[in-house]
Design a protein that fits this description.
- The protein has four helices and seven strands; from the N terminus they run E-H-E-E-E-H-E-H-E-E-H.
- It is α+β, with helices and mostly antiparallel strands.
- The protein has one domain (23-183): Aminopeptidase, CATH 3.40.630.30.
- It has a seven-stranded mixed β-sheet with strand order 1-2-3-4-5-7-6, sandwiched between helices.
- A hairpin with a 5-residue loop joins strand 2 (51-56) and strand 3 (62-69).
- It is globular.
């Protein structure tokens, strides 16, 4: 099964022709980014993330990574939503499906209510379908311009129309209510719904 973002690993360490028992493991963003930069065909490193998961075999060898962060689309930045920004494997059979399932379980355990991700229009989303995701239809396109070097990875990405996928993890997320002595020292957030008037 070919998977989104997959390219063969020249060292022969990929296991696309044999079944490997995969286990979920935490991974730092730095290490996940190194894996992505080495293997992914059209995306580079991410400057930040909320969650990163690795698919490892019983020897600890990493066969894939998934990275999730806040949604890039401002209108989707509601409390409880995470965007899976990268899923990258070495071609190990079912690794993409495994990673979508692992990041889904991790996000749900942390209290997130919804995950979203995007694929190119020519990618069928087989791993997403197998993990219970639904296609929301066409979305995205365009670009933003920034001279900030931390945002340079946007220039590597294809900014065309994509397919948006989502999965609901919980019906709703309880509203976070910070104690008054904490709230008074913080600026309002995008989803601050308290009326101080």
């Amino acid at each position: 099964m070919a998977c989104e973002g997959w390219v063969p690993v020249p060292s022969g360490r990929g296991n696309s022709s044999s079944t490997v028992r995969l286990l979920p493991a935490p991974i730092t963003l730095r290490d996940a980014n190194l894996f992505v930069q080495r293997i992914h065909r059209h995306n580079g490193a991410l400057p930040s993330a909320k969650l990163a998961v690795a698919a490892i075999d019983t020897t600890g060898l990493v066969h894939g990574v998934a990275i999730a962060g806040l949604p890039k689309a401002r209108l989707l930045m509601q409390a409880g939503t995470l965007e899976v920004n990268r899923v990258c494997t070495d071609g190990t059979q079912n690794a993409c499906t495994f990673l979508y399932g692992a990041i889904k379980r991790a996000a749900k355990a942390l209290g997130y209510s919804r995950l979203i991700t995007y694929t190119h229009q020519d990618e069928p989303g087989t791993s997403l379908k197998a993990s219970g995701w639904s296609c929301d239809g066409k979305a995205g396109g365009g670009s933003w311009v920034s001279n900030d070097p931390r945002r340079a990875t946007s220039r590597l990405s294809d900014n065309g129309i994509k397919q948006r996928w989502s999965i609901v993890l919980a019906d709703d997320v309880p509203e976070l209510v910070l104690p008054d002595e904490v709230r008074e020292q913080l600026p309002p957030t995008l989803w601050d719904t308290h009326d101080d008037a």
